[in-house]
From TrEMBL:
Keywords: Signal. One of its GO terms (molecular function) is alpha-L-rhamnosidase activity. Gene3D superfamilies: 1.50.10.10, Galactose-binding domain-like, Immunoglobulins. This is alpha-L-rhamnosidase. InterPro entries: 6-hairpin_glycosidase_sf, 6hp_glycosidase-like_sf, Alpha_rhamnosid, Bac_rhamnosid6H, Bac_rhamnosid_N, FN3_sf, Ig-like_fold, Rhamnosid_concanavalin. It catalyses: Hydrolysis of terminal non-reducing alpha-L-rhamnose residues in alpha-L-rhamnosides. The keyword Protease does not apply.
Length: 622
């Protein structure tokens, strides 16, 4: 006995319910309207998908649809009824292209063979357009927008205050930002999107650097405002663990490109750009590396550094240098909108489209039939709590997450100012005692090879305790060993967000065979942990690269389990970025291996293309 639910993308009719419901699961350019908070598209000609309203009749077909588009509460287009059965990849039906930098709302209704009358309308679904040709936009503003950073210090905190003096109401405020390797954006004290992590995605930076856009209309106020950006090395600066045959990239220090565009109701505009009016310093992150973790000195944290009126007599804030753009226009390099869901942590990273847990009441398979699956559930809201802690020696705590996971942990520490705590991550323990199932030894890290996968945090000595959570690194682990906490740690002092490119569970498999069920469990966890803006081969050791062989072998599995259209479309673009005379390399971005790739590695380009087409039935992909 087995069951396999819901593996087809848009346009499936499920059987339940009432008449005159609205179409649902609307997608604009593949982005699910329901789960995308601020839907930004980089095209003037989007495609739409939807599912037909639920009905209890069989053999229901779509007879027609109608789309309406409005902007600033004015109807700008009405398609009227279009007699067509198409409900996936429906091309934008309006003659007039979408304008850039504009907020729109769309709604739709359908006619089906089940009903004489039209379905209800969907709600108005908001989305907005980006700047379409960003490269040109930057050229046009050449003297104003700069990439800023420092070759003198590790400048990883940059800030600026600005005065919004126009008293007309703010109609929109939009940020365009690229901070590489990684960035975090703060406005008036708040992280603008705290679940968004390790952004932007990894690319061959000289060919393509990604920027993101944020709608910050509600965060900007009349009078003084402050913006702050943290930067990290990510894949840009260092430590890529290459074969001697491939030179380490010499990109240079992290850098920031920032544009805030405010449009007022009276049509006035105001722009804030990254330039030498900003100030920068080295913040509390002394060092950060994807493989080797962070070294953070909490004593250098400055509360309120992204608020207006901040002063800091204790650290050196200096004028940033203007650094070259990461993009090399002589090789046709481009700065493009990151056109895929970002990496996120915790509950915002994973959505569900199928019933996931075996439900004792409704399923013919009970938990007893299928056997207990070892490990955590994907339904644990994206945050794991340790299932146990052992204290092998004084001042060492080893937490067991009960499940190999990818992300990091958030710790609550107490202790005197200046004391350092060291955190290591491992997949297994060195000496598990079989008879008790308990480990007596420490963690086993030989399989991490050159990656230290460790974080060090120096306490600032807050009497109420302090939270440490890494920002610019990611670990693959089941066990976390904490060395040197001055006070005993409890299980409640540790929680570990799961981190991966945002996606939706689309398929689920369970059978009466507990071994196969456990394999499926391991597959989905292994797959999620390797969705790091591109498909990686592993999340823990000194590798974690876009190995083409691994990507090609896993793509069919990945698309059955998860919605990853945009993720793989982005990867295809990255592959094309490094194609040379038709050849593709073994890893993308090229950081290991050769041109041309081994045959089964190079076939990733046609294989991923073909599997995407098979799963999404989108002829444009070919
Ligand atoms: C669409 O189909 C409806 C119902 O059959 C019909 O009344 C209408 O004229 C058709 N519209 C067009 C544009 O063909
Ligand atoms: C901001 O600009 C307005 C208008 O020019 C001015 O009245 C106000 O004093 C400025 N605020 C600050 C804090 O400089
Ligand atoms: C913008 O101005 C128009 C009149 O020009 C007014 O109708 C509208 O309510 C204003 N919008 C906001 C957000 O204040
Ligand atoms: C930070 O800002 C908050 C809110 O403005 C204020 O209450 C607090 O005193 C500030 N803390 C420091 C250390 O400046």
């Amino acid at each position: 006995m087995w069951s396999l639910y819901g593996i087809i993308v848009c346009g499936v009719v499920f059987v339940v319910g009432q008449s005159s419901l609205a179409p649902y699961d609307v997608r604009i350019e593949y982005y699910k309207a329901e789960t995308t908070k601020d839907l930004v598209i980089g095209t003037d000609y989007p495609y739409f998908c939807w599912k037909l309203p639920l009905t209890n009749q069989r053999d229901v077909r779509q007879m027609g649809y109608q789309l309406q588009l409005r902007s600033e509460n004015k109807l700008v287009w009405d398609s009227d009824r279009i007699n067509s059965s198409q409900s996936i990849h429906v091309p934008y039906p309006f003659k007039q292209k979408l304008e850039e930098l504009t907020h729109y709302q769309v709604r739709l209704r359908v006619w089906t063979s089940a009903l004489e009358t039209a379905s209800s309308w969907t709600l108005w679904i908001p989305f907005r357009t980006s700047v379409y040709n960003f490269q040109q936009y930057l050229l046009d503003h050449n003297d104003e927008v700069s990439w800023i950073g420092s070759t003198q210090i590790y400048m990883n905190e940059l800030r600026k205050e600005f005065n919004v003096s126009n008293t007309s109401p703010i109609q929109s405020a939009t940020v365009f930002i690229s901070g590489i390797g990684y960035y975090e954006l703060y406005l008036n004290g708040d992280n603008v999107d705290p679940s968004r992590k390790l952004d932007p995605g990894w690319t061959t930076y000289q060919k393509r650097t990604l920027f993101a856009s944020y709608d910050v209309t509600s965060k900007i106020k009349l009078g003084m405002n402050a913006v702050g950006v943290k930067l990290g090395n990510g894949w840009y600066s260092q430590e890529q663990y290459l074969l001697p045959s491939v030179p380490e990239p010499t990109y240079g220090p992290p850098r920031l490109m920032f544009i805030l565009k405010i449009i007022f109701n009276n049509s006035d505009q105001m722009n804030v750009y990254s330039d030498q009016t900003w100030k920068g310093r080295q913040g509390s992150i002394i060092h950060d590396s994807v493989y080797n973790g962070e070294f953070v000195d909490g004593r250098y944290d400055r509360l309120n550094w992204t608020r207006v009126g901040f002063t800091d007599s204790l650290s050196l804030w200096i004028t940033p240098e203007i650094l070259p753009s990461p993009v090399d226009t002589t090789v046709n390099g481009q700065l493009t909108l990151q056109d895929m869901p970002p990496i996120r942590a915790g509950p915002d990273a994973l959505h569900f489209e199928v019933e996931y847990d075996v439900d004792e009441d409704r399923s013919y398979l009970s938990k007893k039939d299928i056997g207990e699956i070892l490990g955590a559930s994907l339904k644990d809201k994206g945050i794991l709590h340790p299932i146990s802690v052992i204290i092998p020696t004084l001042n060492v705590h080893i937490f067991d997450m009960g499940q190999n996971m990818v992300g990091w942990c958030r710790f609550k520490f107490h202790g005197p100012r200046g004391v350092g705590i060291h955190i290591r991550h491992a997949e297994i323990l060195s000496q598990a005692v079989v008879s008790t199932g308990k480990a007596t030894g420490g963690i086993y890290t030989d399989n991490l090879r050159g990656a230290t996968a460790s974080d060090t945090y120096i306490l600032r000595g807050d009497p109420n305790g302090e939270i440490y959570e890494p920002r610019f690194t990611v670990h693959g682990f089941r066990y976390v060993a904490v060395f040197g906490s001055p006070t005993p740690l409890l299980i409640d002092d540790v929680e570990c967000p799961i981190v991966h490119s945002e996606t939706t569970v689309k398929g689920h498999f369970s059978s009466s065979n507990s071994v196969i069920n456990q394999i499926q469990h391991n597959i989905v966890w292994g797959q999620l942990g390797n969705l790091m803006s591109l498909p990686t081969d592993c999340p823990q050791r000194d590798e974690r690269k876009g190995w083409m062989g691994d990507a090609a072998l896993s793509v069919n599995e990945a698309l059955y389990n998860f919605d990853l259209s945009k993720f793989y479309l982005n990867f295809l673009t990255l592959i094309k970025d490094v194609q040379l005379l038709g050849f593709v390399p073994d890893t993308v971005p090229l950081s290991f291996g050769f041109y041309p790739a081994d045959p089964n590695w190079g076939t990733a380009l046609p294989t991923i293309t073909w599997q995407l087409y098979r799963h999404y039935n989108d002829i444009q992909i070919l």
